[in-house]
Amino acid sequence: MMNIMLISISISISIxxxxxxxxxxxxxxxxxxxxxxxxxxxxFLGILQPFSDAIKLFNKNIVSLEFMNFMFxxxxxxxxxFITLMIIPIISFFKYPLFDIKQSILFFFILSSMAVYxxxxxxxxxxxxxxxxxxxxxxxxxxxxxxxxFMIILFIILLSQxxxxxxxxxxQNMLYFFWGNMILFLIWLTSCxxxxxxxxxxxxxxxxxxxxxxNVEYMGGWFALIFLAEYASMIILSMIxxxxxxxxxxxxxxxxxxxxxxxxxxxxxxxxxRFRYDMLMNLSWKSFLPxxxxxxxxxxxxxxxxx
Length: 307
Known about the structure:
This protein is mainly α. The chain has one domain (57-306).
């Protein structure tokens, strides 16, 4: 048990360090897309830039508002990061995950759904109407896309006949689930962007309307924890995408695909403009949900009709 805890902590620290370099990768990719200079001042080619940013953020003073609920404002960003990192033990970094439970997908369902509550708590606890408005928009967006998100996972469960990520990986020995399910794969990637509040679905942090959304009153270490939770969830979702559609993380091809998926989340931000909010909801309820339901229910109805 002690060894499992040490391995889990070391993997969590590795992911947090990878988040630091993922941010500098994003800034450099966006700078090349926008034909300008990226972060290249601190260290060799800007390698020390994320560490200098972390030191700057965690050394800042935390100023609380007059009517802020300080206890909830203090614990909400921490729990948001903690919930994200709790997904790590069920991911198959080795032949089997650290906690090889038979219902690991249900465990992932619970943890990913709990993130909504902490975002709402972050906005509510400040007693600021701007934070609260941003959190309400974020929760509405995440709930809308979680339905499509979970329906696609349900389809993968039907294909593998299991609730375990390990069994899903083993059921792709003959053929990857990516082949034949490319439409679902694209819908899944789009839902991942909406789940993590990434552009072009970053209405929770729409700078032009809300000035950073639900975290507008958070500074220093609070903002850093929310920032870490967002980027760590992007990396973890890239791993889960690879496990669901491309078998596992144990071979070089899958690792390369995971890197390409993580890169595509950055590339989309520098390419597509932000949607309108009504277009966001129409895309979820009028496009993605009917297509996903049709893809899932049509084979079942056809199978029952034939047999």
